[in-house]
Hints:
Structural class of chain A: alpha+beta
Oligomer: heterodimer
CATH architecture of chain B: 3-Layer(aba) Sandwich
Low-confidence stretches of chain A: none
Mean pLDDT of chain A: 84
Strand content of chain A: 35-45%
Number of strands of chain B: 6
CATH class of the largest domain in chain A: Mainly Beta
Structural class of chain B: alpha/beta
CATH class of chain B: Alpha Beta
Helix content of chain B: 55-70%
Number of domains of chain A: 2
Amino acid sequence: MAASFPVNIVTPERTVLSADAESIQVTTVNGSLGVLKGHAPLLAMLGSGECVIRLDNQQVRRLAISGGCLDVTRDRVTVLADAAEFEDEIDANRAEDALAKARQLLASADASERDSAAVAMRRAQARLRVVRGSGR
Amino acid sequence: MPSMRQVRARIRVAKNIQQITKAMKMVAAARLKRAQDRVQSARPYAEQMRTVMGSLANAAGTSVAHPLLEQRTSIKRIGILAVTADRGLCGSYATNILKKTAEVMRTCGPDGTAPSPEDIRGIVIGRKGQAYFRRRGIPVAAEFAINMTGTTFGEAADISRKAQAMYVSGEVDVVYLVYTKFLSALTQQPTAVQLLPLQTETESASAGASEDALFEPDAATLFGEMVPRSVDTLVYQALLESVASEHGSRMTAMSSATDNAGKMIANLTLVANRARQAAITKEISEIVGGADALRS
């Protein structure tokens, strides 16, 4: 059994998760990143994406996270996210709608709106990936 | 002495008012509970944000500048972000926060002097504040409504981004945030803090988190991303605390109003009973007097 460390996932509105975990995997702006116990101190900017946490009781929790930052120190890991939802909290239909709308906007929009549309699209995709993934 | 009918009518009125104040008190109490929970659950994020900003500021040192951190030497125009109430019937809550706002206006100029009203730009949340600024002829750059039942982070970010835009564009050189700090259901404290330029706490001794941490993508980019967000967090906290304060204040005010109505009803009932007794006594003495007159 691997060593565990405390993980906190907080959003402006609430504490989403506070538990001991063996590993956590998040999506940063530069791609996927995994953290185990003893990781060097790190601050990373998060993109929109999936976050997978293996708790110390071998349970695996999956979340959709968008924006914010990851703070790794010697003894704990904190995720400061703009939004974080567990797989069972995500409304797949709504994410589907949001994705369709973002795609449409991306196709028609000018440069100024393209950025926000792309962000919205990635956010919707991340949610869908988490929801779909749980069905496997 | 007022007639019985008049006294009875007043009792009825007092009872109606008491019913309303009692209902408002209970609504405020229920909402206060929720607002308090929100304040509580928003705290961890704010605290984490502070530590992250601290270690970022340490690691980045003086090499990283951000427009929201830069202190301006000459302060010409002052922005005031005031979180006030939309509605009355909450005791001295609205008055207190406006008093604090007035105090900031008197002392926020260079060297603690009062700037002229044209040099102030208001960012006002809540109708009471909007009326106040308008009456005094102080320019209002933006107005927002306050969401009493569930302020979201998005709403706070909208307000905060407006203040940041004003600061960055040079429309104002400093921004003060005036809000009501929630201490308990009974005590709330109007507070004024400097919002922009943002003051970061660089206690290098604390936590020791600064030790050669890795940054991804790099410290400057992270800083640029996190500074505005940390301002949003401050505004969000201020909004939540203000909402909780308003509910607390309203609950206290309506509670004492209900008590006062009860006292008034008791007094009036006494007066009514006395009037009734007097009337009965008078009637009896008239009958007795009449009977005596007939007998003799």
